[in-house]
Specification:
Elements lengths: L18 E4 L6 H12 L3 E3 H9 L3 H8 L1 H17 L4 E3 L8 H10 L1 E6 L2 H8 L13 H16 L4 E4 L5 H16 L2
Parallel strand pairs: 1-3, 1-4, 2-3, 4-5
Helix pairs in contact: 1-8, 2-4, 3-4, 4-5, 6-7
Cofactor: Mg(2+)
Subcellular location: Cytoplasm
Keywords: Amino-acid biosynthesis, Aromatic amino acid biosynthesis, ATP-binding, Cytoplasm, Kinase, Magnesium, Metal-binding, Nucleotide-binding, Transferase
């Protein structure tokens, strides 16, 4: 979905549920989510940061020490807790929405938005961080291409799709707000 270039300042109607941002790592979920929440005067939560706080260790350490299944279990519980907290903006980890239980909870209790980005942009953005455990397993382009092939059909189940492109996070918030305005005015 491509939103108008003009600045979208607010929603035309208030939200009655949380907004959950989904998509691959590097799509801009945290950067856009934090700014979206600020613009709407809502709380913001990054699910990965909440998982780290609950576990007392980094996502990378959880993956290394306990494995991906243990991480996904903790992620499922943390996202359920965040959804229960009410209105706000939640940025999920890249694999969260792929989990059937998490996806069902999000679909039932939130408005989900897929920040859809092409692999070249994801590689560009994720190359700046060493905190991506899945990308430490080999060639980031190949890994992200495989993840996109597996996950994009699932992300497409989100309530809204907003293309994440190489623009400022503030302009991406405008795109998200335009999509939300279309949704809440229906």
């Amino acid at each position: 979905m491509n939103a108008p270039a003009s600045r979208v300042v607010a929603l035309t109607r208030p939200l009655d549920r949380p907004v959950v941002l989904v998509g691959l790592m590097g799509a801009g979920k945290t950067a856009v989510g934090r700014r979206l929440a600020a613009r709407l005067g809502l709380t913001f939560a990054d699910a990965d940061h909440e998982i780290e706080a609950a576990a007392g260790r980094s996502v990378a350490a959880i993956f290394a020490e306990l494995g991906e299944p243990a991480f996904r279990d903790g992620e499922r519980r943390v996202i359920a807790r965040l959804l229960d907290s009410g209105r706000g903006v939640i940025a999920t980890g890249g694999g969260a929405f792929v989990d059937p239980q998490t996806r069902a909870a999000v679909k039932e209790r939130a408005i989900s938005i897929w920040l859809r980005a092409d692999v070249d942009l994801l590689v560009k953005r994720t190359s700046r961080s060493s905190r991506r455990p899945l990308l430490k397993r080999g060639d980031p382009f190949a890994i992200l291409t495989d993840l996109a092939a597996q996950r994009n059909p699932i992300y497409a189940e989100a309530d809204l799709i907003v293309d994440s492109v190489d623009i400022s996070p503030e302009r991406m918030v405008d795109r998200v707000l335009a999509a939300l305005n279309e949704r809440v005015s229906q």
